Amino acid sequence: MKKNYRIPFIYLIFLLFFILVFGAFLFLSIVKPINYINPVTVKKRLALRGNIYTKHYCVAKSEKIFAISINPKYIDPNKKNLFVNLFSIYSNVNKETLKQLLKNKKPVILAKVNLKTAQNLKYLLKVLDKKRVFLTNKNGLRIGYSITDYAYKRIYPYNDTLEPVLGRYREDLKRGDNGIEEYYDVLLQPKQNGIIKGNRDVYGNIIYDDNVFIKHAINGNNLKLNINLILQREIEKLLSIQKKKFKADEVMAAVMDTKTGKILAIASSNRYNPNHITKKDIPNMKISFIRELYEPGSVMKPITFAILLKNNKVNPYEVLNAYNGKWKPKWRKTPIIDDTPFAWLSAENAIVYSSNIVISELALRLNNKEFFNGLKNFGFGEYSKIDLPYELKGVIPSLNKLNFPIYKSTTAYGYGIMVNFIQLLKAYNAFNNDGIEISPKIADVPTDKKRVLSAKNARIILNILRKVVLKGTAKAAFINGIWTAGKTGTSQVSTNGGYKKRIYNASFFGFANDGIHKYTIGVTFLRIKAKWPNYFASSSAVPTFKKIVDIMIKNNLLKVSDAK
């Protein structure tokens, strides 16, 4: 019987036809047209400014800003409302604003957003693409919006904390402005922007194949500060209260680790929020710690005494005539007055009870070079080397002026000399550090040191300053279980060659030690207008010092012991 081969042959014909059709589709999907241009994209990767941080907290950081760009002609006209509605929800851009932007015939930036919003918009891009909101270009690719690095924004998470010392970043100038931000600008600046160049997929993402080119972004260096942020914030709150209470223009305070020179807190009552600066904030941008020059008053007396000791011109226990609180030497037109009158005082008690008369008598023993070089040795008339920009060096009397008794006398008790707060803090620190002076540093960077006084003489001064707290003008600084010492200073504010009545600067510079830790602490009230006797340092700066030490005890920076 003859076999029938017609059915298998028909199957063969269908199989061949299917292979040809599949091959054609495969060819068309893989092989590029002759005029096809491979979609290559270049994405800039913006380098960021370095962060500024303390041990546990970031006080200044950079947040990248992304630009969302689109060519409106690639949006399906029938789905423009859908695009506007969804994009507005995800970007928080007003719908009417979007509609106006989409009237452009050229590519346009729809929004500038932070990282979180950019990530949300990246997800939205896929949703819109699936809904066929975008049209295709000549290569058959749908063109949506692009998300690219645009700029970065400087963020200060703790608002006015550490201002004005921290400073700010000026977007218009692309650099730090004032404070730490400016002083360390070169360190913090971005080093190199990055580039990624390669083929892209339908969503605009770069395909990381062998053809991709990558140049990595190099961010600016981070900067670590010595600041204890908790201590800093608590002192700032205290100073804001004290400013109002004592009717001062500004109150400043700083805490320095005696041995290392590290600044743990440097606080002002006058601060501003760098995230939102208003016109009224402009005066608060001045860093008064280094730019406010003033006559220090009696806090200069221990410096004068130290210079006398170094030149072997004083015995702490010798007794001098105190003229019952009023002395009119022939070289003065007006008498020298002491607030508390004494008939006789020992040399050291000239500091303990703050006698202008006795310290003047002692200063006359110094020749002009001894006094001048002594002031220079302690850093007056010189930069303090603190890491802040635009410091004013201050003014000390010239060698020629110090030939005259009037200048020796007034300089000895803190008039006729202009200093800044940090110079005093640095000078006092040497008394608590065996005569070794250290340049204060806010950032965790190396510092320098030098001996300005013998260890023996430093201890003599330190013991005298302890007596100021035990029985002198700073009894309110006594704290059970913490060794405290220091010196008060109250000076009238000079202007136009004269002195303003009832307006004073009041200071206390001293120490708080617990057997393990040693700290140098300064407090200054500028232009205090409180009523008598509250404008005196003993009533204003000294209690503020004590409150700062209490804060340090609470935060375990000092440990109370049974020792007195």
Describe the protein.
The chain is of the alpha+beta class. It has two domains: 40-200 and 207-224, Penicillin-binding protein 2a (Domain 2) (Alpha-Beta Complex); 229-273 and 288-554, DD-peptidase/beta-lactamase superfamily (Beta-lactamase, 3-Layer(aba) Sandwich). The chain has 16 helices and 21 strands. The strands form seven sheets. Strands 2, 3, 4, 5 and 10 form a five-stranded mixed sheet that branches. A five-stranded antiparallel sheet has the order 12-11-21-20-19, with helices on both faces. A three-stranded antiparallel sheet has the order 1-8-9, with no helix packed on it. The longest helix has 25 residues, at 6-30.
Features:
564 residues, alpha+beta, Penicillin-binding protein 2a (Domain 2), Beta-lactamase, five-stranded antiparallel sheet, 21 strands
Supply the CATH class of the largest domain.
Alpha Beta
Q: How would you classify the helix and strand content by structural class?
A: alpha+beta
Contiguous uncertain segments of 5+ residues:
32-37
Any idea of the CATH topology of the largest domain? Beta-lactamase
Q: What's the alpha carbon Rg, rounded to whole Å? A: 36 Å
Mean pLDDT equals 92
Distance between the termini: 129 Å
The CATH homologous superfamily of the largest domain is termed DD-peptidase/beta-lactamase superfamily
Biggest beta-sheet profile: 5 strands, mixed
Shape: elongated
Fraction of residues in β-strands: 15-25%
What count of helical segments does DSSP give? 16
Q: How many strand units?
A: 21
Helix content: 25-40%
